[in-house]
């Protein structure tokens, strides 16, 4: 991260979020959840104090040397629009001006600037205009920058509230979105390929609390996909907080599908069973939706007809955040999130025993259902569910001892 600011002796982080659409009780719920998520992310950095204050949050009591790490963590807390590092000073014009000059001096070269001043209460012996004038003059003198109020290179923010002054330059972009946990819970079908980690991240960003479910075909295929799903879960936990991953040995269902149904419906039937099993896990978890990494037309199983034939097996909504994205857009996002390098690690993919030679691209639902009727669906689902294992993946910043055991659901 490039750092264009000095870290003051008593740093205060100013966290902004978008408030559009947040009204009344909904806003309070959103803010309380965001505060909890921020507190959790910063707890192992001396548990700084997080306070909600008029549509933003202030983090106080942090040691200056912890600030870079705090910024890195906060850039993964969904709901934050911007993060700034402020100096906290006495609410006097000379003190505000001195703090602004200290920050402006270390700023990379620029030509123009503007002071954005706010005064919460009216009882100070100066107005917002006074702040703008005094701080502006001091910064101009110290840097040679010109004032440009409409499109400045640099913005110097000065906020005076509750007998304190906050001064900061610039804002670091947060990840946006909504705080994890504000949108309810969902189960994500998590393959460890390129798409599903991106799909999962996108739904976390919309505030969903997510539970990952990975299906593997051992011993017909190697353990690589399972290990990849674990590494990806570790990575996504940094954005989400503790993250459940359920590992599902799927081979028994696959073998029944191979033995008793036409080859061309195999992929669709695998997916139908995955949805049913994921839904059973979701019900146990009080989750109300499923997430997949499907993208329209990307592969044969993702035509409109096939998506419909697959979704028919689910009763919960199936969220497909990548449905309208190109492969390249998904790859670009995987790079930004950091999942790309793990997703492309080699794994057994097209096992000739399990994958069909011919794939139906326009499956008719009644034919798929008829093919499936050769199977005892309930018994197969139950047999698979009897073998699942759930583990919890903790963020790298986790602050409490991590239990070592793997628990079964
Ligand atoms: P991905 O890149 O996510 O692996 P894909 O391009 O390989 O997707 P498909 O194999 O058709 O596409 O899978 C579509 C979706 O079905 C995946 O995005 C994922 O949500 C789910 N899925 C497929 N295989 C698995 C698996 N082994 N475990 C969990 N979910 C899976
Ligand atoms: Mg895949």
UniProtKB/TrEMBL annotation:
Recorded GO MF terms: ATP binding; CCA tRNA nucleotidyltransferase activity; tRNA binding; tRNA-uracil-4 sulfurtransferase activity
Compartments where located: Cytoplasm
SUPFAM superfamilies: Adenine nucleotide alpha hydrolases-like, THUMP domain-like
Origin superkingdom: Bacteria
Family matches, as PROSITE patterns: THUMP
Major enzyme class: transferase
InterPro entries cross-referenced by the UniProt entry: Rossmann-like_a/b/a_fold, ThiI_AANH, ThiI_fer, ThiI_N, THUMP_dom, THUMP_ThiI, tRNA_STrfase, tRNA_sulfurtransferase_ThiI
Annotated function: Catalyzes the ATP-dependent transfer of a sulfur to tRNA to produce 4-thiouridine in position 8 of tRNAs, which functions as a near-UV photosensor. Also catalyzes the transfer of sulfur to the sulfur carrier protein ThiS, forming ThiS-thiocarboxylate. This is a step in the synthesis of thiazole, in the thiamine biosynthesis pathway. The sulfur is donated as persulfide by IscS.
Family, as annotated: Belongs to the ThiI family.
Protein name (record): Probable tRNA sulfurtransferase
Species of the source: Ardenticatena maritima
Gene: thiI
